[in-house]
Amino acid sequence: GQNIDQPTEMTATEGAIVQINCTYQTSGFNGLFWYQQHAGEAPTFLSYNVLDGLEEKGRFSSFLSRSKGYSYLLLKELQMKDSASYLCAVMDSNYQLIWGAGTKLIIKP
Amino acid sequence: ETGVTQTPRHLVMGMTNKKSLKCEQHLGHNAMYWYKQSAKKPLELMFVYSLEERVENNSVPSRFSPECPNSSHLFLHLHTLQPEDSALYLCASSQEGLVDEQFFGPGTRLTVL
Question: A1: which of A29, A30, A54, B19 lies 20 to 30 Å off by Cα?
Fold first, then answer.
């Protein structure tokens, strides 16, 4: 079966750095997405990785290792507004998105 | 503003009611999706429409009935729902044929009594 694993909840301090991990087992791979979802709002796109390595976009970076079936989202200089759920999703060989359950990130002052 | 709107934002209905959820996208996309989001569970894909044709059903109970009259509008008709159907229902759109992100609406929070 297809499976995406990510931690249920993480806590970090304002101004610090946090890494949210995602491991996957899917039938085929056409890229990995990270989305941010604030409580009661729509998921919004953060990043897309299809090749191994690190993609940096401002305070957020996303890393992919296809051989390990592993990705992480790195958030730097954390702000209170970064408190949200972070969803990992993999596009399989049928170009369908397989979703993780999301990681709820709590930022403390 | 993501360009995808959903109405209503909140809905409470009894098990014998009939209601419809509406989604509209203003992005010129040709694929639209219905997802169910329950607490602490992965997003569940319910239906996919590409070029107004349904291409994915995912074994959704028949009490959920989708309709896609054109590439900008998507409906989810609900009847004789169960309490376990209470969830956030999200609509999304994308450009079919591209490995591209999906754009989501804000969702309808459905409570079935």
Answer: A54
